[in-house]
């Protein structure tokens, strides 16, 4: 077991909210708050200095907002980002996921949910239920359908089974459900998912769902 605590950077323009998050996280032995920022620009600067594992990022802030900050952090292969929002179908959440965020949480989430989210995202898994991500994407894309993209050449690198697994992930199926569909073990599914993420250069399952829609592999409402 790794005894090194998960390093967390808190980003919110409301000091009282940051204080509340800090109090929750400091009660956990495996979590350490390494810094706080009041806007996106400060978050990017502190992330470079403090090397956090996960950034808890408010979406709406003055100056550089959480979307732009997330894009900059992810473009630099920085820490994983969990977005904080007030509404689970907020259009800004969609933009944040496209920018590379690994998850989003409602600001009124229970403390245990917040703590678990940090642990799961740090481990490289998805916090947001894939079905919620799918619903968010479908609502957004059905309202403003994008032009049909040209096939991504990276898809040609996937085996037939890996394509099937990617489509199943985009449907919102869990590893257990995918294993049941293809009559394989969950360990085998995890291996396939890991290979899909590696070949496509994706950070996690949430990004795989976003990719499946934006590449045209999955059609909204289909």
UniProtKB/TrEMBL annotation:
| KW Transcription (keyword) present | yes
One GO term in the molecular function aspect is:
DNA binding
This chain belongs to which protein, by name? Transcriptional regulatory protein LiaR
- Biological process annotations from GO: phosphorelay signal transduction system; regulation of DNA-templated transcription
Point out the coiled-coil segments of this chain: none
Tell me any Pfam family this protein matches: Response_reg
Q: Which gene encodes it?
A: liaR_1
Q: Which residues cross the membrane?
A: none
Could you tell me the superkingdom of the organism this chain comes from?
Bacteria
């Amino acid at each position: 077991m790794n005894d090194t605590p998960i390093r967390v950077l808190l980003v919110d323009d409301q000091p009282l909210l940051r204080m509340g998050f800090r109090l929750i996280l400091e009660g956990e032995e495996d979590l350490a708050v390494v810094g706080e920022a009041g806007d996106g620009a400060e978050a990017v600067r502190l992330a470079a200095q403090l090397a956090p594992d996960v950034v808890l990022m408010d979406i709406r802030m003055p100056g550089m907002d959480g979307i732009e900050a997330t894009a900059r952090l992810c473009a630099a292969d920085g820490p994983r980002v969990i977005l904080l929002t007030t509404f689970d179908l907020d259009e800004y959440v969609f933009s944040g996921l496209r920018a590379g965020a690994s998850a989003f949480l409602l600001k009124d989430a229970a403390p245990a949910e917040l703590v678990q989210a940090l642990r799961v995202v740090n481990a490289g898994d998805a916090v947001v239920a894939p079905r919620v991500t799918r619903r968010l994407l479908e609502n957004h894309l059905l309202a403003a359908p994008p032009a049909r993209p040209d096939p991504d050449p990276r898809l040609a690198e996937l085996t037939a089974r890996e394509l099937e697994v990617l489509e199943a992930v985009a449907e919102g199926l869990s590893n257990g459900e995918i294993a049941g569909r293809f009559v394989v073990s969950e360990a085998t599914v995890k291996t396939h998912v890991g290979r899909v993420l590696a070949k496509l250069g994706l950070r996690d399952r949430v990004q795989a769902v976003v990719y499946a829609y934006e590449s045209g592999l999955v059609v909204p409402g289909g």
